[in-house]
């Protein structure tokens, strides 16, 4: 073989000649996501693996090949991570980790937070009907609408349960992207529907929550919610199991594992596999654009819904509720609660809203899971 033949073979093995313009577009998008995660600090634990998975699949598409489609019968590495997504294992494990990390005390101390968490799900139902009007079928519309809850694991869970795996990549990337962009998207909406006087409202200190209440809460919620909507058990059940690990005080090793090592392993698998579903062929099309737009509408509507109910509760309680905390009901834990604190502190640096906002924030996680269970019940899953 001549030197020229060798060089020609080597050149043909590079990615430069096989990539499409779409692949290059997605590579640029991946680099932008990496910039936002590393430079700006927008949810880097999620955005770094997602962006890197996006980068990998658009340079080497075979990394997502199934064993049946590969020449060696083994398949691509990220195919196996993605299979765990389709089996709904990773979203449920993420919920267990979130439960182990989260203090439900603010929600228990202020049960009215459940209402704000529910109101913030408004965006889900607005997006559902809009998606149907835009030509998506019922199951696709339901899977897309959950983006409004700003809850990536639930979006993945519902899309797979409803058999919408062809839309899983755009849905998951949109959901996680909007979760990461909470600090940019939410503040203008929050300020639009509140006055500076509203944002300065100081709330009474939350009452102390007993250890018995914290132990009973995950047990009672599991029984009540899962009896009404059994399909929510994989999400709500794992969320409450993780929280029971935390609050029982007798399984510290399980709490540590669920909230650290296990959760971060799952985040790596989930993030890279979600990113790897965004090949140019799957992502650059009209349906994806519609999903991204619908997700943004859902997210903005959910934020607005929480603030609107906050305004109503402010009036009912004669100014004891700061409406900003309603925006935290979109369930991006704890980022949305931090944004409520940040916007409130801009109006009054001495006002501390974080713990009050954690109530609607945690309620939003439960509310999004309930919304997903409701859609599964409607479609007989």
Characterization of the model:
This protein has 381 residues and is mostly helical. The relative contact order is 0.18. The longest helix has 31 residues, at 286-316. It has 20 helices and no strands.
State the share of residues found in helices, binned by percent. Answer: over 70%
| Rg calculated over all Cα atoms | 22 Å
Could you state the oligomeric state of the chains shown? single chain
Largest sheet: none
Helix and strand composition category: mainly alpha
Distance between the termini: 60 Å
Instruction: Tell how many strands the DSSP assignment holds.
Output: 0
Low-confidence stretches: none
Mean pLDDT across residues:
89
Q: Helix count, per DSSP? A: 20
Succession of helices and strands? HHHHHHHHHHHHHHHHHHHH
Strand content: under 5%
Categorize the overall geometry.
globular
Concise structural overview:
The protein is mainly α and 381 residues long. It is built from 20 helices and no strands.
Layout of secondary structure:
Blueprint: H1 3-13, H2 21-38, H3 44-59, H4 77-86, H5 89-101, H6 105-109, H7 113-119, H8 122-133, H9 138-145, H10 152-161, H11 168-180, H12 182-192, H13 196-199, H14 211-228, H15 233-248, H16 252-275, H17 280-283, H18 286-316, H19 335-347, H20 354-378
Helix pairs in contact: 2-3, 3-11, 3-16, 4-16, 5-10, 5-15, 5-16, 7-18, 7-20, 8-9, 8-18, 9-10, 10-11, 10-20, 11-18, 12-18, 12-19, 14-15, 15-16, 19-20
